[in-house]
Task: inverse folding
């Protein structure tokens, strides 16, 4: 036992490979938050008056709200006036016209992260919106997407070019008063991605956003809105990384999904924010509100997340199942190593008839990591014939980590069926012995066992990302054999 | 090939092996018999490198090398194989992936190129038929939901794929019906070779009818108390362990 733990610990110790800083000139706000800061932010973005009003309303409301403290996480108090709320690379011209005008340093950054943005090197079949600190610096494949009628652009552009859609849907799923962090985001969100899939269109390629935090002492507050009209389909992925810094940085995003009749949205996340060092110093606070509204009949919203980064994660991608026969899914792998903490799960709110939801959660804790699943399954009075299946599995590596499960179930309709299964297991000495007795390295053995544990979730990811996720898990676990 | 001298091992401060001496040459089959709790399984696990036990005294050489100095995986790569008494499950990891990783680890050690998925699949299918396992088993999780007999056949399948120099079979016959016993024995007999040794640990004589050993040793209370040829097993079957002044702990406990 002692030996196995030692090995796991050695395995988990690996440098975070995206921890570099891009040396680039930026326009960055002085730290601090007040109505003037919000007005300045809105001004830089040349936003219409209604947008500024919306932000200020959210801000005033936020001032009255309390930071949530019910999660199974602990972190030092955040001073919201010590954060800078806007940082953007300096631009030569007002707006970028093409990729050729993007600062080569930025292109190099994304290349280093494995996300080439140049036309000739772009990933086949995947369109990328690259968000650097507070702004979107490039969006690829815009033209072929526009031909199909798909709008894929930064949130800033959407506010300028598609105000009617933004007005109609922004805050419709996550209202600015929903919770403390969503309120903050509503007031200060700087950029993010906007997606609109028209009626009957199957989006011809995967859409993705790559979020990169670079500047120090800044927060990243992105806002994503995806609207899928009747009988449309879209698969969207997001990835995120940040430099290694000793100070914690705040990332408070809001993602809203709207699926109308017979529409399907598949949303996948590979979250690899800087997790802090092995002593728990530094790392990102990832306090995110993600929610989908399956408004239309037969609509479907599916969340898949692989959470390996961040010092503290507070995140519950949820689905409101309003349309009859609508379907909600949540597939999650959350890994906490060293002193990482995660409190994550989902909410499935069944309102329509014959709605169904599936929750598969895999929590992995290594070293001193703490991992909590928190999930709500709620059947409203009108949710005739609703069904839910929940499976929550925890895997422990070593004997200093923790796993917690907090399932909440509320049913106001007698015809519903709710199933909940939960397991907790360890990477056992017997499993390690078997693998090693067959000549397999301890590192490889742990990675294989953990990947096996996550299989049900990985198979939900788009192919190329499933491979990435497996590798990421391997890297994140390095040093964990102990 | 294998030379054990005065081997002592303990777990949690309790001494289980109390001075084992044993020499096994290439091409030989040795059977270790003895009552429950005599240390048979401990011996198998200590040789394979289990970290549950602490070796407190003695030495073990394997082809001239100090075996006890090697990590578990290094011993495996040098050709020490243990067929487990209770093979553990690894959920979600396909048998095929597990076996290919193992085979390629060994090949890497010998400086041979890795086998690709298609090549390995073909090879593994052939060998699985040899132990009467439906090739569909290759796609299932390692030992996941396998019956006792299937697990044991899976162990022999691994031995056949890995082609070890020393195969240690820990109670491979336990829990097998007569048909499965035939299949497993045929598999083990297929392993017999001039350059390979087999060490069988068993509670019962019946396995030795199918896999005929060259030598039989009786292990009791952590020591080898008697060694002989094939005929010793018959004598044990007839007379029990009592005439050797050995108590069968299981018999007295139950």
Result:
């Amino acid at each position: 036992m002692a030996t196995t733990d030692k090995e796991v610990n050695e395995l988990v110790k690996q440098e975070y490979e995206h921890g570099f800083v891009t040396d680039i000139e930026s326009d960055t706000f002085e730290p601090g938050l007040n109505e003037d800061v919000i007005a300045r932010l809105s001004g830089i973005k040349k936003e219409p008056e209604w947008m500024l009003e919306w932000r200020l309303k959210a801000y005033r409301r936020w001032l009255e709200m309390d930071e949530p403290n019910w999660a199974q996480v602990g972190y030092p108090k955040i001073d919201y006036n010590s954060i800078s709320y806007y940082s953007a690379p300096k631009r030569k011209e007002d707006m970028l016209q093409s990729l050729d005008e993007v600062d080569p340093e930025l292109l190099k950054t994304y290349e280093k992260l494995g996300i080439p943005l140049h036309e000739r090197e772009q990933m086949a079949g995947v369109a990328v919106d690259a968000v650097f600190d507070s702004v979107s610096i490039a969006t690829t494949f815009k033209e072929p997407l526009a031909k199909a009628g798909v709008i894929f652009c930064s949130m800033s552009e959407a506010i300028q070019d598609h105000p009617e859609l933004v007005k109609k849907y922004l805050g419709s799923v996550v209202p600015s008063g929903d919770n403390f962090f969503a309120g903050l985001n509503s007031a200060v969100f700087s950029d993010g991605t906007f997606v609109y899939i028209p009626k009957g269109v199957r989006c011809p390629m995967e859409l993705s956003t790559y979020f990169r935090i670079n500047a120090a002492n800044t927060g990243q507050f992105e806002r994503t809105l995806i609207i899928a009209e009747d009988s449309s389909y879209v698969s969207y992925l997001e990835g995120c990384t940040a430099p290694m810094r000793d100070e914690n940085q705040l990332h408070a995003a809001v993602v809203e999904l709207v699926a109308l009749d017979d529409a399907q949205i598949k949303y996948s996340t590979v979250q690899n924010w800087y997790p802090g060092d092995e002593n728990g110093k530094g790392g990102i606070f990832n306090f995110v509100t993600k929610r989908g509204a399956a408004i239309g009949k037969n609509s479907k919203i599916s969340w898949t997340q692989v959470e390996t980064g961040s010092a503290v994660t507070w995140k519950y991608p949820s689905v409101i199942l309003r349309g009859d026969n609508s379907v909600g899914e949540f597939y999650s792998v959350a890994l906490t190593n060293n002193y990482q903490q995660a409190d994550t799960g989902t909410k499935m709110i069944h309102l329509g008839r014959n709605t169904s939801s599936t929750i598969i959660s895999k929590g992995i804790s290594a070293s001193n990591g703490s991992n909590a699943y928190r999930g709500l399954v709620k059947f409203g009075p009108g949710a005739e014939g609703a069904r839910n299946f929940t499976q929550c599995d925890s895997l422990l590596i070593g004997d200093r980590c923790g796993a917690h499960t907090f399932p909440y179930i509320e049913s106001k309709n007698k015809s519903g069926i709710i199933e909940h299964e939960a397991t907790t297991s360890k990477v056992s000495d017997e499993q390690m012995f078997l693998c090693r007795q067959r000549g397999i390295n301890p590192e490889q053995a742990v990675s294989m066992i953990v990947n096996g544990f996550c299989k049900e979730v990985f198979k939900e990811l788009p192919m190329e990302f499933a491979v990435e996720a497996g590798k990421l898990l391997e890297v994140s676990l390095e040093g964990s054999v102990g | 090939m294998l030379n054990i001298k005065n081997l002592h091992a303990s777990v949690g401060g309790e001494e289980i092996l109390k001075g084992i001496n044993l020499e096994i040459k290439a091409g030989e089959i040795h059977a270790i018999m003895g009552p429950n709790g005599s240390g048979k399984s401990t011996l198998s696990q200590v040789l394979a490198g289990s970290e549950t036990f602490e070796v407190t005294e003695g030495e073990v050489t394997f082809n001239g090398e100090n075996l006890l100095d090697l990590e578990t995986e290094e011993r495996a790569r040098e050709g020490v194989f243990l067929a487990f008494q209770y093979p553990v499950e690894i959920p979600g990891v396909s048998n095929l992936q597990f076996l290919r990783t193992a085979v390629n680890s060994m090949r890497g050690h010998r400086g041979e190129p890795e086998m690709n998925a298609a090549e390995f699949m073909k090879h593994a299918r052939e060998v699985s038929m040899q132990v009467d396992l439906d090739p569909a088993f290759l796609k299932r999780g390692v030992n996941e939901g396998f019956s006792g007999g299937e697990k044991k056949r899976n162990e022999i399948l691994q031995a056949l794929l890995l082609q070890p120099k020393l195969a240690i079979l820990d109670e491979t016959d336990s829990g097998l019906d007569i048909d499965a016993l035939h299949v497993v024995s045929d598999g083990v007999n297929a392993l017999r070779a001039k350059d390979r040794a087999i060490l069988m640990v068993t509670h019962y004589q019946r396995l030795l009818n199918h896999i005929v050993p060259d030598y039989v040793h009786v292990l009791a209370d952590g020591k080898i108390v008697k060694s002989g040829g094939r005929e010793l097993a018959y004598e044990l079957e007839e007379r029990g362990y009592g005439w050797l002044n050995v108590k069968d702990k299981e018999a007295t406990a139950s």
Chain B has nine helices and twelve strands. The radius of gyration of chain B is 18 Å. Chain B touches chain A at residues 48-52, 71-73, 75-77, 81-82, 84, 87-88, 90-93, 97-98, 101-102, 105-106, 109, 141-142, 158, 162 (CB under 8 Å).
